[in-house]
Amino acid sequence: MTAGYDPYAFEPFAVTVDLAVFTVRAGALHVLLIRRGQEPYAGAWALPGGFVLPRESAETAARRELAEETGLPEELVAALHLEQLRTYSEPDRDPRMRVVSVAFTALVPDLPEPAPEGGGDAAHARWLAVHDVSELAFDHAVILADARERIGAKLEYTCLATGFCPPEFTLGELQSVYETVWNTTLDRPNFRRKVLATPGFVEAVPGAARLTGGRGKPAALYRPGPATTLHPPLLRPEGSTR
Amino acid sequence: MTAGYDPYAFEPFAVTVDLAVFTVRAGALHVLLIRRGQEPYAGAWALPGGFVLPRESAETAARRELAEETGLPEELVAALHLEQLRTYSEPDRDPRMRVVSVAFTALVPDLPEPAPEGGGDAAHARWLAVHDVSELAFDHAVILADARERIGAKLEYTCLATGFCPPEFTLGELQSVYETVWNTTLDRPNFRRKVLATPGFVEAVPGAARLTGGRGKPAALYRPGPATTLHPPLLRPEGSTR
DNA sequence: CCAAAAGTGTTGACAATACACCCATGA
DNA sequence: TCATGGGTGTATTGTCAACACTTTTGG
Is pTM, for the whole model, over 0.85? Predict the structure, then answer.
């Protein structure tokens, strides 16, 4: 650091956070968006986010904004695994002023009630299939693309796919998470073996189990295990993503 | 984004960049540090870095600061592959004011002249073995640890190990990069096969070659290839990284 | 001729794939 | 009893680690 340290020596920067929150619903990857109510980009879809307050870290701000702007349940937001994606700092990314934005990604299970319909700001929040997302405010389309890329890659060598699942899930549900994000199909017996062979990825819920979308044999239930990384990785087949 | 947009509505944030620049020298991983000349932490070692100017992106600022503060050659700095590591935004990470810092990592070959000894700021820049680094200013020890971790992981599935090598290098040199960063030993025949089996990782320099630290059979020379990712990855053995 | 480093070959253990097959349930 | 999804077994194929061996240089 070279120059002096008068806080007002420089044109002030605003620091914001943006969130790419994903879920898997109806066999498609969805992202949580809000509709902007004011200029610029009024009426356009945007990633949820907002200013980092003077006494907050970026991560704290991200949780606060997520709770405020979307109707996601408090306890879910508090427990959520937030991952820092990247910081976007192009000088003209916001037409009003200099804004540097720290982007985060998060994965949530498909929520019982379809859209977050809390009150206030949450009214403009919606899940949209990433397929159908066309234009976004600011450089959010770039952030979204980067986030998708990252999520897809992370499924290969981390356990975070369970983040898309409810607290207890079947291996079929877990598999469909991979298939949806990667837009591919996997061999069920092999998928099953790989998951179970990785210690700490999932652990069986002891009292037997049942569940399924209707017909078919009831499936055993699993919980996320203590592991965070996948050794060896679960590699996606050649052609995937989109 | 919820609130109004008066640039002065909030206590201003300063945005800085910090750089963890690594090289491999004499069988040890080294990091480029500068000695601080002013409070706070005067006399302490710190990562190079500085303020992002009003019309700069973080990456542009990183290159500028790197050139200014260290004596690294201009053309090297311009061509360098900079990778964004993470943004550090804890409210009290700088005792003077609110500073949000975007951290980058970069890899450079062992430079002919041992330390950057340009002029001015560069006078305080030195390469230190990461082993010997004890205390650093601010939260730079955390940044350094994160950067090491990231570099080690990235060697597994990307081609960036060649960034530690001169423009033309032998497979032995490349192997010792892996061995140094991972603090492990690798089987030479197998390493060789894996590298050559990955299309685009390295390409042979056609006109024969020779080079070596003295005795031994002359080795063929290679250049970095066009590939950026390693499929399949080159996994490090169980116990590594210190 | 010996040490040191580059480069080649071969083998056996293990992992990943593909696919056949059985089980339990709802309609 | 049939369709649907859960779950098991197995053979083939390929990949990877281990290690023996040859080649080319400097002293």
Answer: yes
